Every structure is written in C-alpha cells, then in structure tokens.
Amino acid sequence: MRRYIKLFAILTAVMLALVLALALFVSFRETPGVAPRYIFLFVGDGFGYPQLTLATLYNSSVLGGDELALNSFEYIGSAYTENTYSQITESAGAISAIASGIKTDNESLNIDFEGKKHETIAEKLKRQLGYKIGVISSDNLNRATPAGFYAHQKSRYDTMAIILELAESGFEYFGGSDIVGFISTESMAGKGLRDFLGEHGYRYINTREDIEKLGSAAADGKVVAVSPMLDPYGTIPYAIDKERHADSFTLAEHTKKCAEFLYGDGKNGFFIVVEGGKIDWACHANDAATLVHEVIDFDGAIKAALAFYHRHPKETLIIVTGDHETGGLSIGYSETGTRLYLHQLAEQTISYSEFSFLVQGYRRTGTPFEEVLPEIRRYFGIGPYDGENADFYLGYGDMEKLRAAYDMSMTDPSERPFTMSEYMAYGFYDPLTMTIIKLTNNKAGISWGTYSHSALPVPVLAMGNGAENFTGFYKNTEIFAKLKKLLDLD
C-alpha cells in the first residue's frame, strides 16, 4: 500500500509540474510587454495577392519546388493602401504609412500635410530601445521604400537630401543595391560617395570577400554593403538574369549577413527591413516570368529570416507585406478560358530589361527582322509555327504585331510618335520587348490592367512573438500602430 501511495504522490507531483510549466509558457506568450527583440519586416514593392498567387502556382506546377516560405505563415491579415488624395498610392506615400503611421501624398516621405516630420518605427526603436537597424533592398538604397525608414522629405526625388539623411541616420547596416545620384559639390571639395559616407562613420564595401568577412556591428562599425555585381541602374540584377550576373550578392545573402552582423553577442535587439524592390519593376513592365523569379528570390530572403527565427523563436517576429500592388495582374485571360499554361513562362530566360538592351544593339547594327526572330526564340522559346510547336507559337496576327513593334524599335526613340495608342501598346518601354512579353504572357493565361499601381489590398503575413496582432483587414498605417503598441514605444 505504501508503495502505491508513494507512486501516486510522484505522479501527482509530475502532473503539477507539467501544469505549472504549461502555465508559465502561456503566461510568457500572452503577457503584455514581452516584446520581440529581433524583428524582420519584409516589404515586397508592388507585391499584392495576385503576385503571391502566381509565384505559388508557378513554383509548384512548373518548378516542382518546396512550398514557398510565404505560404507557411500562421497569421494572415490584409492592408488597404489608399492615400489621402488618391485611392491608388505610390511607394513614398505607402511606405510613410507603414514606417511612421501617417497618410500623406504620393511624393512625401514621413512628412504630413502640415509639414511636420514623423519619426519612423526604425528611428523609434533605435532611440528608445537601442535596437540596431538594417535596411536592405534590391532597389537603390536611396529610393522611396528603403528611404521611408530614415528620410523625411517633401519629395522622394530630393536625392542629395535623402543621401544626407541616410548618412546621418546612424543605422548600422545598409545593404543590397547601390546609392545613386550623389553629386559632389565644391563645398565638399570634390569628395566622392565613399569619402562622404566615411566622414559619417560608414565603411562602403562592394566586394563579396569584404561583405562575407563582416563580423559584427560592435566590432566593425557601420557599413554600406553593396552587391559586387550590379545592373546598369546600380541595382541587384533580376533573378531571371542571374546566370549572366553570377557574382551578385543576393537578397537572401544580405538578409543572413545583416542578421549575423546586427545580432553580435545578442545583447541588443535589431530591426531589419528587407525590400524586394524589383518585384515592382517587373510588374510595371507587365513581365510575368521576371516577376515570379523576383518573388521566389524574395522568398529566399524570407527563408534566411526563418532560419534565424528557428534559433530564437520566442524573441523573433517576422512580418511580410507589400506597399501596393503593381500592374493590375490578372491570373486568367479570355483566350485561354479556364486554363493556365504557366510552363510557357519557363521558356523565357531573360528579363524585359536585359532584352531591351539587346534590342538597342539590333537598332545600332540594323539587324533585320528575320535575324531577330531566332533571338526571340532563343530567349522566349517562341517563334512562327514550324510543325513541331503546336501549343506555343506566333500566329499570323502575332507576327503582324511583332513586325510593327520591330519597326518602331528600329526607329530612334526621339523620332517615334507617342500617342495614347502607343502608350497602351508599349507603355514607356521598348516596343518589340513589350510586344513579345505581352504575347507570351497572354498565351500562358496571364493579363495585366495597367503599367502603374492598383488599389488592390496587400497581404500582411506574420510569424513569431506578437504575430497574432497582425490578423484582420485594416489600413496600412495599422502596421506601424501595431508595432508601436507591441513594442511599447512613445
């Protein structure tokens, strides 16, 4: 009998211990004021639900890859993106809403209609909690979305003022694409960008070796780490073009390095903003193949953050959203009915941007149309019907459109007519490139409504400590408000 009593006592003690442990765990999860120490905010520029859906479908049905990290988030919300003056926002107004919680016009960065400057969530975290800050983008580091976390300007195009604010921000890590538009003045004694940043305590590095050997912010100070391989615009090349730019330091590599660099010995928290900036560029050009590769590349950066999260699950928060949707993307087209042929997008192996540069070469050399057709087949996998390509070919009407676009592309841009008709057909892009992109997109079952932005809502995906706060439908200013409340900031 004594043995049974003793065994019962032991089992009771074990049960009580388990209940207490569970209670402590729940208490930790639900106690207000236990804020995340490590925060990743991913902003897909131009990234709406259609972009997420198309990339998911392409990844599963064409690439047969593992599930996108984007689809693993437990908490899902949606944000409306309209501005005060416009139901369709631009990037500056949208990022101001996310970064500082204000509605403003389409050109201002964190300045309201009364001219008041508003402190961003990154600045608040640095000033009030001592968090280290990282800003990463595949777009230029002084363009609207990355600048939205450190700049306060009436015009997103006030380049030098924004560069000065970057240098004076004190943020520890800027990474990805380059800073563009720096103008050396006489008052600066002819100093270049590297010297200018150096005067503000930043080390400018742009080799793979230098970026990879970075240790920690505590040891190495503040850095501007620029990818060693850039396109003519000073940005990380499109993912679809990576074979032509093999030495580029990717968005995922920057995210991993930045987290390591800011984490250091773990004594300080950090806030890292990662922009998938060229999702927007691809959608402006209505280029579906380039778009899906950009979203999958963006997803790779999110996976890098998830790897950090799995090492620090109780202290990490990851949020993914978009500033607006671009292109009015529609997954469906009248001529293809209820069928999609996304495998045809895989035939495209070059971005609209890279192909446009090739077209410029054709114009300089006077390359005949008949010699351009094999190049189109090479890069887009399509050409006139030849008896073998019955499912994916250029019909008679397609060839007429392509020939007219070729003639336009071979004309000097300054001499081309530009009416609404030309704009609707080509936008502000190369006519031949846009025509082949539209033809192949439509044959895959993809259509577009605009070369600009749309009023579609954007997803808000969250995981980790405090993620449950980001569900529901709300204005994009609530992302700032929810972070501010979660982190108990002024």
Polypeptide structure, described:
The protein has helices at 2-30, 49-63, 91-100, 121-129, 144-147, 159-168, 193-199, 208-212, 217-220, 251-263, 278-284, 288-311, 352-365, 369-380, 396-409, 420-426, 431-444, 477-486, and strands at 38-44, 75-80, 132-137, 173-176, 202-205, 222-226, 270-276, 316-322, 325-326, 330-331, 446-447, 453-454, 458-464, 472-475. It has 490 residues and is of the alpha/beta class. The protein has two domains: 38-329 and 452-486, Alkaline Phosphatase, subunit A; 349-445, no CATH class. The strands form three sheets. Strands 5-6-4-3-7-1-8-13-2-14 form a ten-stranded mixed beta sheet, sandwiched between helices. Strands 9-12 form a two-stranded antiparallel sheet. Helix 3 packs parallel to helix 18 and helix 13 (352-365) packs across helix 17. The longest helix has 29 residues, at 2-30. Mean pLDDT is 92; it is low at 1-5, 7-14 and 16-33.
Task: Describe the structure using short key phrases.
alpha/beta, 2 domains, ten-stranded mixed β-sheet, globular, disordered N terminus
Number of domain units: 2
CATH topology of the largest domain: Alkaline Phosphatase, subunit A
Residues in β-strands, percent: 5-15%
Q: Mind summarizing the main beta sheet?
A: 10 strands, mixed
CATH architecture of the largest domain: 3-Layer(aba) Sandwich
Span between termini: 63 Å
Uncertain segments are 1-5, 7-14, 16-33
* Gyration radius over CA: 25 Å
Write down the oligomeric state: single chain
Fraction of helical residues? 40-55%
Rounded average pLDDT: 92
Strand numbers in spatial order across the main sheet: 5-6-4-3-7-1-8-13-2-14
